[in-house]
Amino acid sequence: MRAKVGIFLLSLSIALSLAPAQAALSAGSIPAVFDELLKSAVLSNPAMVLIDGTTGQIVYEKNSFSQRKPASVMKIFAGVATLKYLDPQSSFVTNISLGVKDRTLVISGSYDPWISLDHRVARKMKRTSLPYLAFNSLSAVKKANNGSLKKITVLYSGLYSQDISNLKKFWAKRGFKPMMRAITADEVLLNSGTLVVSDTSPQISQILDYMMKWSENNLAERLARLSSRASGSAFNSQGVSDTFIKILTDLKIDASKLTVIDGSGLSKENRITAAMMGELLYKLRKDEKYKLLYESMPVSGVSGTLRSRFLTTAPQAIGLVRAKTGTLNGTVTLAGYIESIDREYVFVTLADEIPRGTRANSKARAAIDRLLGRIAAPITPVIISEAVPAP
Fold first, then answer.
1. Which residue of 67, 82, 293, 369 has the fewest CB atoms within a 10 Å radius of its CB?
2. What DSSP line would sit under 67-116, residue for residue?
3. 313, 318, 322, 328 alpha-carbon torsion, rounded to 10°
4. What is the pLDDT of residues 290-329, one digit of tens each?
5. 154 lies in the same domain as 295
6. Residue 56 CA, distance from chain mean position
7. Which pLDDT tens digit goes with each residue over 137-147?
């Protein structure tokens, strides 16, 4: 907590020293100024919408109904689905046991998205890794079978296909090539013997917070699929698409221009519109159920994928923007909320026609920061004093 406060104070001091003596634009002044700023060649005809967060009135729009690549802004849908269909206070448990039958190993999973595929990353983040579970399982099998790794059957439930593949590769490199057989959760209970290794994930609320702040693709995809299954849809990409469409439909938002290939935004075939995402963000902000999604978004110049943004491009906006970033080669996006004197705006910017390359991406991000910097200002509470009767 102290570290976060220190970072914020440092960012604030930079903002005060570098901020230009330029007042934030009023709502009436925004259209003309934004029209001019969005002509920038580095943004290459982006789509944008700016909505008054109190009234829902559209203050500015440009190409707002044009289908565009969302990049990681797509993760907002994954976050909404998680809070709508999963219990934020629940966790995932993975137990690995020797089987009650000889030469069997039983893995009881719960499709834990938090288990890291990379052991070094896991240690750094204090997460359990798949290699850690695999190594402990291998050691237990060898010990139980006098060093023999032959004719072993692994019975498993609640594992992602990618995790099964990675387990097999890890074990094969160490001379362990068991027969893998999927079983039901009930069968897991009947076949489990002595516990070898166990892991419990953080609560889903913490997993969601990490996913939104650091934009981890694997977490987003897995949370989206888990939410899809919980909603009654398929546990695959089609189910994720059906779930995201249902979210919009339930909120009475037109979903006809939504194209979903994955839950992370990694695919360049995903499509949204600025109007669609803007309306979604506006309605989410009004619903207490999705407060965690707002709180999990990176903050300009302070946290997550926005920690290094706005510091020099628009220091007056440090701490005033909460938004989900998105980047693909040739695409830079940003969607969320921004404070502006007497109100909060909802904004969506989708620049998906920019030149390819990191330099072009950096220029586009800086242009978006400067654009938002023109309206950023701390919200000042209105103080109404009681009239004092004349003596």
1. 67
2. -B--GGGGHHHHHHHHHHHS-TT---EEEEEEESSTTEEEEE----S-SB
3. 20
4. 999 999 999 999 999 999 999 999 999 999 999 999 999 9
5. no
6. 24
7. 999 999 999 99
- Mean pLDDT calculated for residue range 52-62: 97
Beta strands in 230-380 (DSSP E): 321-328, 331-340, 343-351
> Measuring CA to CA, which residue among 190, 197, 196, 177 is closest to residue 100?
190
Residues 104 and 54 in one domain: no
Which pLDDT belongs to residue 19?
41
Residues 65 and 155 in one domain: no
Residue environment code for 308-338, b if the CB has 16+ CB neighbours within 10 A, otherwise e:
ebbbebbbbbbbbbbbbbbbbebbbbbbbbb
Instruction: Please determine, for residue 5, whether its predicted confidence score (pLDDT) is greater than 70.
Output: no
Domain region containing 99: 93-201
**Cα 159 → chain centroid:** 22
Q: How many domains does the chain have?
A: 2
Q: Which of helix, strand or coil describes residue 344? A: strand
For residue 249, what is the domain's CATH number?
3.40.710.10
Residues 98 and 70 in one domain: no
Query: Considering only CA atoms, which of 119, 123, 116 is closest in space to residue 201?
Result: 116
Between helix 358-373 and helix 30-37 the angle, nearest 10°, is 170
Instruction: For residues 57 and 110, state if they share a domain.
Output: no
| Cα 102 from Cα 119, distance rounded (Å) | 30
User: Is residue 230 located within the same domain as residue 335?
Assistant: yes
Instruction: Determine if the pTM surpasses 0.85.
Output: yes
Q: Reduce the DSSP state of residue 10 to 3 states and report it.
A: helix
- Measuring CA to CA, which residue among 250, 265, 270, 222 is closest to residue 84? 250
